[in-house]
Design a protein that fits this description.
It contains 11 helices and 8 strands. α3 crosses α10, α4 packs across α5 and α8 (238-255) packs across α9. It is an alpha/beta fold. The protein has helices at 10-16, 20-32, 82-94, 101-108, 112-123, 154-158, 187-197, 238-255, 263-275, 287-295, 302-311, and strands spanning 47-50, 55-58, 66-67, 137-145, 165-172, 177-182, 203-207, 220-224. Helices cover 37% and strands 13% of the residues. The structure holds zinc ion.
């Protein structure tokens, strides 16, 4: 089996993936290039392709013997063609400030509601893999997203679902960012996250928030006092500030209202683009390469997808 051709531009991708054969070829390669086509239910490779139905049938007798290229992927049970799915993946994976369901609706001719679900499914391919602890020069910071809780009375704030969410980030300078939604800015919340993601003894830079006091027991901790200045030689959190501004531009400019429950999905999306902006050698990554990486993440995300729809109250998937 030859490695499939990945088009270089969106325009070429739309033309290329209009042919179902090219979609099949790409997904077979991504899923089964080492093993050959495998039954998602029992793992057998004794499967027969039924040309007419564009499905395989497993030779072992068990329920769900027949499966399609979509079975076991984020595309499962979707009647939408891959000629829509793959260009949608291309668009969201490469749009620096994200892309709204309205834009997908207009660009690809699916309903806005359908586009909303497509984008959430595609964000599952953006979830990072656990690549161990980060070392070197690490910036740690948190930011508030959404709401206008700052001017709100505390009693009112407690009942407000659109209260500002707190997002905490850990960034290796010149490398990876990891951001996560946290409940509050307490020491007992923030410091375990630093310990989870950062190798002992690394250089850690934070602002003067009291919750970071004591990090110097495990790290070479240096503090920038933002009341005085933003940079003191090596001591700053500018890398994370930059990531926060990209994130906020995406959330405010493109997605406008994001429910707190879904916020982590938008973080996944923004981190995916940020963490895949360059190759390990510093060379910029191109759109085709980022798309290729996202497609590699389509498998094994089905359960999480069910959680997505399960927790979306009142929303039923329109396709
Ligand atoms: Zn089987």
């Amino acid at each position: 089996m030859n490695e499939p051709h990945i088009p270089a531009t969106l325009q070429a991708a739309i033309i290329h993936y209009a042919d179902p054969k090219n979609c099949m070829e790409l997904l077979i390669w991504k899923r089964w290039r080492d093993t050959g086509v495998t039954c998602p239910t029992c793992g057998s490779t004794k499967v027969k392709f039924m040309e007419k139905h564009q499905r395989w049938q497993c030779s072992t007798h068990h329920p769900l013997r027949q499966f399609s290229i979509k079975t076991g992927t984020i595309f499962e049970d979707s009647p939408l063609g891959l000629d829509k799915w793959l260009p949608a993946m291309w668009l969201i994976t490469n749009a620096k400030n994200g892309i709204s369901s309205w834009e997908i609706h207009r660009a690809l001719g699916v309903s806005q509601k359908t586009a909303w679900f497509m984008l959430h499914r595609i964000r599952l391919t953006h979830q990072g893999k656990d690549s161990g602890k980060l070392g070197g020069h690490i910036e740690v910071d948190e930011t508030f997203i959404g709401g206008k809780a700052r001017n709100m009375h505390a009693s009112k704030r407690a009942n407000n679902p659109f209260e500002k969410a707190v997002v905490m980030g850990v960034l290796k300078r010149g490398g990876e960012v990891r951001a996560t939604v946290v409940q509050n800015r307490e020491k007992s919340t923030l410091q375990p996250i630093v310990e989870k993601h950062v190798r002992k003894g690394s250089n850690v830079y934070t602002d003067e928030l009291i919750s970071y006091w004591g990090l110097d027991e495990k790290f070479a901790h240096q503090v920038i006092n933002h009341a005085e200045k933003y940079v003191d030689g090596n001591i700053h959190t500018n890398g994370l500030e930059n990531f926060w501004s990209l994130l906020k531009r995406t959330l405010k400019g493109t997605y406008i209202s994001v429910e707190p429950f879904h916020l982590f999905r938008y973080l996944d999306e923004q981190m995916f683009r940020y963490n895949n902006r360059k190759h390990a050698d510093g060379e910029l990554m191109n759109d085709a390469e980022r798309f290729d990486l996202a497609v590699a993440g389509i498998v094994g995300k089905r359960i999480m997808y069910k959680q997505l729809t399960g927790k979306t109250e009142g929303a039923t998937e329109p396709f």
